[in-house]
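Q: Could you fold this chain for me?
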Amino acid sequence: MSTSVRASGPLTVGTLSAEPGSKARGSVLADLGAITMNIPVTLINGARRGPRIVITAGMHGGEFTGVDAATRLSELLKPGEVSGQVIVCPVANPPAVYDGRLGVSPLDGVNINRVFPGNAEGGPTERLAAWLFADLIGGADAYIDLHSGGIDETLNDFIGYRLTGKPVLDEKTRHMAHALGIRDVVLGLNAEGGNSHAAAARHGIPALLVETGDRGERDPAAAGRLVDALCGLLGELGVLDRASREPLPVREWVWAGAVTADTTGLWYPDVTAGADVSAGQVIGRITDPATGREHRVVASATGRVFYGMHGLTVAPGAELAAIAAPREPGR
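A: Sure. Below is the predicted structure, expressed as structure tokens.
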């Protein structure tokens, strides 16, 4: 796969810097307005020229597989074996990761993966997104954002990416998605929205969302598999000297519908992630704990549930299921 080749020189993020052939690990200070935040970053500046790859994890709290894998990858990569530069940020959103456990930051109740590329004059989470985009993501030749099913989510592992309508960019991103060795690839048909990988795609960067592990699992084997998948992708990108693997047959999907709660109560699902459902099918019930009255919840589309609510208690607007349908030829 063809990627940009950068001239050798120092790799610098904030006050952290690595000369060619070296690695630097530490924290970089991000100014969020009323507060500052230490963001952990590892810089691997290869001994040979090559592309710059940026990998983030920990955008949300309670998603542990990606954080663990990114940390392991930081330790594993050796500058002498790297062509180009790799930047790894294993905890991109410390307030959500350390002080919270779900998708929103306890600083301001904002989901960072809805506000990229951020706003340097906005609230703390918008400023953090702007810092991450300006200092890390925006300078990448390829970008990978690692997520997992959170404590309240069941998840069917998948890769996500956005179509931009730019054939060369879309083909590069497709190649990356197929090279990771995760069977299900879910496409967004445009690059709109505040997700980090969508903002990167709008910026002309091939970018992937990687979703592995669910229910906040802490599984060393799952993290190890993800590290191996990432090393395989780095090989495809020319960063590591690795033989190409036999490609795994990939199933492509497109998002078809979301199911959200419209009442408060206790959620009792009849299906979980990986289940195939039909539009109008009952997929669970929300029970009022005061009266025992049940509210039936139906699928909004026909397809496969890729992630769903595992938590018992829900309020209006809680996402109960996300459904994708097989991609039709030519779509």
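A (continued): Residues 191 and 198 are 5 Å apart (CA to CA).
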